[in-house]
C-alpha cells in the first residue's frame, strides 16, 4: 500500500519507504522488494525529518550548524555571546548539552542502524541484486561514520544490529584510526559492488569520490589521486556545468555525483534548511548568514560564482544570505520558486560534485606539501577557475590557494570546516577569525562534545572529549 | 539588652572549641571538610602541536588537557608560557622536549611531555631516471656489457637496429629500417606528478616521402608490444625529411600522474630509413 503511494507521488529515485518502527525486523526482509525498501529507508535517514521536534532526527538538515557555522564562512545574526544552541557554534562555546550536537550524533547512528539492518539480512537477496544492496548499504554506513569520526573523534563502532542492552558496543569509543580502516573497507566494497547511474543514491563514482576524501584525510595521497582520475575519465560522464547556477538549480546535472534528494511541499520528503537561511522565512530569524570574511573572499576569488553564492538580504541590507539553495525563488537571479511553502523546500543537498573531485585531485598531487607546480594539478585547478570566469593561469598552486579556491567554489556546502581540518589550518584560521570577532576559540572546540545525553545513558562508560 | 548579653556569652563559650577544631584540621589535613566530596576529575595534561605554514621554526600548540585551569608550557629551549594555547618560535633547528603542566585550583598537577623535531623542510626531490644505452653505444651497460640496443627490447616486436653510419655522437646510433617494424622500449622510474621532458635527435632519409618516427611515453609498463598503443599518455611525431644526414631535435613533455613507472616507446611508420641518437630526460620546473 505504502509502496504504491510512493510510486505515484515521487519523481525521484527514492522517497518514503515502509515504516520500520511498525514492522518487526525478524521476518521483515524476505524478498528483494523488501530489501529495496530497506535501502530507501537508509536514504530516508540521511534526508532527516523536516520538523521542529527536539526528538526527531534532523540529520543533514542540521549539518550546517555543526560544520559551516563553526567556520569563518557563516554565522548567526544573534548576540556574539548568546548561549542559544545555534549560537554556540558561532561563538565556539559549545556545550555537551547542545541539542543539535545530540541530534546529529543520534541521526548518524540511526543511519548506521538502518544500513546494519540491511547488511544483516543480505542472505535473502537474490544473486542478481546482492552485490548492489551490499554496496549501497556499505556506502551509506561509511558516509555516516566519516561524518562522525571527523566531528566527534573516536566514536563507538557498531557494525551489526545490536540489542539495546549491548552497552559495551554502544558506549565504547574506538580509536579514529580503526574507524577509518572500517570506513575504507566499506567504501572499497562499495566501489567494487556498484555501478554508475544514480545520483540520489550510492554509485561507484560516489563511493570513489568519498573514498578519495577519506584517503586525503588520512594522508594516502596517491590512492586519492588514482580514485579522482578514475572519476575524471571522460567515459564516466561527469563534467562541470558551464553555468555555475545550474549546479544548484538544474538538479541531477552532470556535475552532481551524489546528492540527497528532497521533494517540495511534502512534509516527509522536504527539507527545512533552505528557509532557515532566509530572513524569518523559516522558524529562526535567519541562520547560516554570510560573514564579512566570506564576502571578502568572494571579492577576491569568487569570479562568476559570487552572484549565485551570496545575495544581499532585502529586509536587512547590511546582511548577506546564501544564494545556493533558495526555496522561494529570486526574480533578479532568474530562480523560480521550488516549493509553494518555502519551509517545505525541495532543493537537493549536494554531497559530492565534480568540482570537488577536481580540487581533490589537486590536493592529492599537492600531497601535504606547501606548493606544487605539477601540470596535472594546474590543469584540474584551472578547469574549476575557468568555469568561474577566472582564466588567468597560474604556475604554482600553494596550499593557501587551494583552500581559497575550495572556500568560494564549495561555499555553504559544509566543506570548509573539514577542508581546514584536513589541510591542517583549522586552528590557525579559526583562532584568528575568533579573535577578530570576539568569539572564544580553543583548539578543543574542533571536536564536538559527545552528547551529555549519551554519556548519561552510558552511566559513565562513554568518555567526554577534552575541553567539555 | 538582656538578649545581647546572652548572645555575647554564647560566643565566648564557643570560641575555645572553634579554635581547637581549626588547629586539629590544619595539623592532620586529611579529614575532608564536612559535606565535601573527593575530587574524581583530576587534571590531565595533553596537547598537540603543528608547524606553521610559512615558518618551520614556529609551532602552534593546542591544549587538550581536561579538568585543569592553569597551564605552564616549557618549550625545552629555556622559554615558557602560561597562555592556554601559545604559539612559539624556536630560535634554531633541533629536538626539543616540550612539556605542559596542567593544574587545578586544588594544586593537583599533571604533566605531559612531547618531543618536537624542528627541521627545515626539504623541497620536493624530483627523481631523474638514467636512460640506459641512451646513445646506443656498445659496452655501456653494467660491467661493460651490451650491444647498444639491449636495454630497449620488448617481446612481440623486433628490437630496434644499430648503425655505425650517420651517427650524431659516439660510434653508434639506433637504426630504423624500412619495413622492419622495429621498436624501442625502456622502463623508467619517475616521481609521480612531476613534469618531464624527453629529448632525442633523429634523421630520416629524404625519400620515400611520408615517413615519420614516433616518440611516446607509456603510462604503465607492458609485457608485449601489442599493449603499447593503449598505454600511451604522450606522443610526438618526427617527420623532418629535408636532409638524410642532418639530425633534428625532437622533444616530448609528459607528466606520469600518480604512477611512478613509465616507459619510453619509439617506433616509426616504416616508410623511410632513419636514425635516432642521444636520448635524454630532464625535469621541467
Describe the fold and architecture:
Chain B: It comes from Flagellimonas okinawensis. Chain B: It holds the Pfam family PKD_4. Chain B: This is PKD domain-containing protein. The complex is a heterodimer of chains A (468) and B (285). With 468 residues, chain A is mainly alpha-helical. Chain A is built from 19 helices and ten strands. The N terminus of chain A is likely disordered. Helices cover 46% and strands 6% of the residues of chain A. In chain A, 52% of the residues are buried. Chain A has a domain of 207 residues: Alpha Horseshoe (Serine Threonine Protein Phosphatase 5, Tetratricopeptide repeat), CATH 1.25.40. In chain A, the strands form five sheets. In chain A, strands 1-5 form a two-stranded antiparallel ribbon. Chain A has a two-stranded antiparallel sheet with strand order 2-3. A two-stranded antiparallel ribbon of chain A has the order 4-8. The radius of gyration of chain A is 21 Å and the shape is globular. Chain B is mostly beta strands. Chain B has two domains: 72 residues, Immunoglobulin-like (Sandwich); 142 residues, Galactose-binding domain-like (Jelly Rolls). Helix content of chain B is 11%, strand content 37%. In chain B, the strands form four sheets. Chain B has a five-stranded mixed beta sheet with strand order 8-11-16-13-14. A five-stranded antiparallel beta sheet of chain B has the order 9-10-17-12-15, with no helix packed on it. Chain B is rod-shaped and about 110 Å long. The interface between A and B is medium-sized, with 29 and 24 residues.
Oligomerization state = heterodimer
Helix share, percent of chain B: 10-25%
The radius of gyration over CA of chain A amounts to 21 Å
Greatest chain-chain interface? A-B, 29 and 24 residues
- What shape does the CA trace of chain A take? globular
Q: What's the total number of strands of chain A?
A: 10
From the coordinates shown, what is the CATH architecture of the domain at 1-194 and 456-468 in chain A?
A: Alpha Horseshoe
Quick one: biggest sheet of chain B?
5 strands, mixed
CATH class of the largest domain in chain B: Mainly Beta
DSSP helix fraction of chain A? 40-55%
Order of helices and strands of chain B: HEEEEEEEEEEEEEHEEEE
Amino acid at each position: 500500500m505504502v509502496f504504491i503511494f510512493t510510486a505515484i507521488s515521487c519523481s525521484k529515485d527514492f522517497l518514503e519507504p515502509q515504516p520500520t518502527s511498525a514492522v518487526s525486523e525478524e521476518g521483515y526482509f524476505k524478498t528483494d522488494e523488501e530489501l529495496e525498501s530497506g535501502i530507501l529507508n537508509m536514504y530516508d535517514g540521511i534526508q532527516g525529518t523536516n520538523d521542529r521536534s527536539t526528538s526527531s532526527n534532523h540529520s543533514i538538515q542540521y549539518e550546517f550548524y555543526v560544520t559551516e557555522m563553526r567556520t569563518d564562512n557563516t554565522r548567526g545574526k544573534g548576540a556574539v555571546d548568546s548561549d542559544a544552541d545555534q549560537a554556540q557554534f558561532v561563538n565556539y562555546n559549545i556545550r555537551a548539552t547542545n541539542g543539535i550536537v545530540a541530534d546529529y550524533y543520534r541521526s548518524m547512528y540511526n543511519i548506521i542502524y538502518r544500513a546494519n539492518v540491511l547488511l544483516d539480512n543480505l542472505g535473502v537477496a537474490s544473486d542478481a541484486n546482492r552485490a548492489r544492496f551490499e554496496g549501497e548499504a556499505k556506502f551509506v554506513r561509511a558516509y555516516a561514520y566519516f561524518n562522525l569520526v571527523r566531528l566527534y573523534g573516536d566514536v563507538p563502532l557498531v557494525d551489526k544490529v545490536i540489542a539495546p542492552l549491548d552497552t559495551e558496543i554502544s558506549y565504547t569509543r574506538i580509536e579514529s584510526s580503526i574507524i577509518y580502516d572500517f570506513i575504507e573497507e566499506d567504501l572499497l566494497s562499495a566501489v567494487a559492488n556498484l555501478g554508475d547511474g544514480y545520483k540520489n543514491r550510492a554509485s561507484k563514482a560516489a563511493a570513489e569520490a568519498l573514498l578519495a576524501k577519506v584517503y586525503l584525510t588520512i594522508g594516502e595521497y596517491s590512492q586519492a589521486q588514482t580514485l579522482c582520475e578514475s572519476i575524471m575519465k571522460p567515459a564516466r560522464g561527469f563534467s562541470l556545468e558551464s553555468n555555475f547556477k545550474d549546479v544548484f538549480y538544474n538538479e541531477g546535472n552532470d556535475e552532481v555525483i551524489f546528492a540527497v534528494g528532497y521533494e517540495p511541499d511534502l512534509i516527509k520528503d522536504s527539507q527545512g534548511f533552505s528557509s532557515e537561511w532566509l530572513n524569518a522565512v523559516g522558524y529562526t530569524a535567519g541562520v547560516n548568514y554570510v560573514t564579512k570574511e566570506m564576502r571578502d573572499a568572494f571579492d577576491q576569488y569568487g569570479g562568476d560564482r559570487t552572484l549565485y553564492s551570496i545575495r544581499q538580504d532585502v529586509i536587512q541590507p547590511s546582511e548577506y544570505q546564501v544564494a545556493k539553495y533558495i526555496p522561494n525563488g529570486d526574480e533578479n537571479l532568474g530562480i523560480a520558486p521550488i516549493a509553494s511553502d518555502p519551509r517545505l523546500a525541495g532543493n537537493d543537498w549536494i554531497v559530492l560534485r565534480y568540482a570537488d573531485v577536481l580540487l581533490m585531485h589537486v590536493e592529492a598531487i599537492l600531497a601535504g606539501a606547501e606548493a606544487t607546480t605539477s601540470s596535472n594539478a594546474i590543469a584540474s585547478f584551472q578547469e574549476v577557475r575557468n568555469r568561474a570566469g577566472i582564466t588567468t593561469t597560474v604556475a604554482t598552486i600553494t596550499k593557501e590557494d587551494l583552500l581559497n579556491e575550495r572556500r568560494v567554489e564549495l561555499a555553504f556546502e559544509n566543506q570548509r570546516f573539514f577542508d581546514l581540518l584536513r589541510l591542517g589550518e583549522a586552528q590557525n584560521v579559526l583562532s584568528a577569525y575568533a579573535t577578530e570577532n570576539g568569539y572564544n576559540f580553543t583548539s578543543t572546540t574542533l571536536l564536538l562534545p559527545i552528547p551529555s545525553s549519551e554519556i548519561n545513558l552510558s552511566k559513565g562508560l562513554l568518555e567526554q572529549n577534552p575541553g567539555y | 539588652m538582656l538578649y545581647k548579653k546572652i548572645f555575647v556569652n554564647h560566643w565566648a563559650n564557643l570560641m575555645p572549641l572553634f579554635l581547637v577544631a581549626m588547629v586539629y584540621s590544619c595539623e592532620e589535613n586529611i579529614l575532608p571538610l564536612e559535606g565535601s566530596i573527593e575530587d574524581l576529575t583530576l587534571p590531565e595534561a595533553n596537547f598537540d602541536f603543528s608547524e606553521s605554514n610559512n615558518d618551520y621554526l614556529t609551532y602552534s600548540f593546542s591544549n587538550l588537557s581536561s579538568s585543569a585551569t592553569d597551564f605552564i608550557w616549557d618549550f625545552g629551549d629555556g622559554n615558557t608560557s602560561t597562555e592556554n594555547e601559545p604559539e612559539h618560535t624556536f630560535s634554531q633547528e633541533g629536538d626539543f622536549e616540550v612539556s605542559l603542566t596542567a593544574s587545578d585550583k586544588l594544586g593537583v598537577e599533571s604533566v605531559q611531555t612531547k618531543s618536537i623535531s624542528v627541521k627545515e623542510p626539504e623541497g620536493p626531490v624530483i627523481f631523474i631516471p638514467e636512460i640506459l644505452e641512451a646513445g646506443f653505444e656498445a659496452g655501456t651497460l653494467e660491467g661493460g656489457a651490451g650491444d647498444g640496443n639491449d636495454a630497449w627490447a620488448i617481446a612481440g616486436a623486433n628490437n630496434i637496429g644499430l648503425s655505425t653510419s650517420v651517427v650524431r655522437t659516439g660510434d653508434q646510433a639506433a637504426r630504423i629500417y624500412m619495413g622492419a617494424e622495429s621498436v624501442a622500449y625502456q622502463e623508467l622510474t619517475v616521481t609521480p606528478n612531476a613534469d618531464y621532458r624527453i629529448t632525442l635527435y633523429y634523421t630520416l632519409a629524404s625519400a620515400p616521402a611520408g615517413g615519420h618516427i614516433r616518440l611516446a611515453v607509456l603510462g604503465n609498463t607492458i609485457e608485449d608490444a601489442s599493449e603499447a598503443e593503449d598505454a600511451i599518455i604522450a606522443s610526438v611525431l618526427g617527420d623532418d625529411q629535408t636532409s638524410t644526414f642532418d639530425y633534428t631535435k625532437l622533444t616530448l613533455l609528459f607528466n606520469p600522474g600518480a604512477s611512478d613507472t613509465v616507459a619510453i616507446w619509439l617506433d616509426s611508420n616504416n616508410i623511410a630509413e632513419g636514425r635516432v641518437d642521444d636520448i635524454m630526460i630532464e625535469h621541467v620546473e
